[in-house]
Design goal:
It is a single chain. It is built from two helices and six strands, in the order E-H-E-E-H-E-E-E. Strands 2-3-1-4 form a four-stranded antiparallel sheet, covered by helices on one side. Strand 2 and strand 3 form a beta hairpin.
Length: 89
């Protein structure tokens, strides 16, 4: 299944917390788990949030990946499918 992962950085992070968030992100990108495919990743220009298209069999895999990030970001996970014009793929 495809999921859009929307992570909104909390605005009240201290510099140390923001640094920890960056370290967590680097660790994730270096060790994407088996069974999880990161298709694309985008960031808002103001760095307030990111948007990742992730493929995995179960949403719980994404929830597990995001658990360490929860103190630093608000997360929304949406199951998605590709569309072309008004046609569903």
């Amino acid at each position: 299944m495809l999921f859009m992962l929307i992570s909104k950085t909390r605005t009240d992070l201290s510099p140390d917390e923001f640094q920890k968030l960056g370290e967590l992100a680097k660790a994730f990108y270096a060790n994407i788990p088996d069974g999880v495919t990161l298709h694309t990743d985008w960031a808002a220009l103001d760095q307030s949030r990111t948007f990742a298209l992730i493929e995995t069999d179960e949403q719980s895999a994404i929830e597990d990946i995001q658990a360490p990030f929860r103190p630093y970001v608000d997360v929304e996970i949406v199951a998605v499918r590709e569309i072309s014009g008004w046609e569903v793929s």
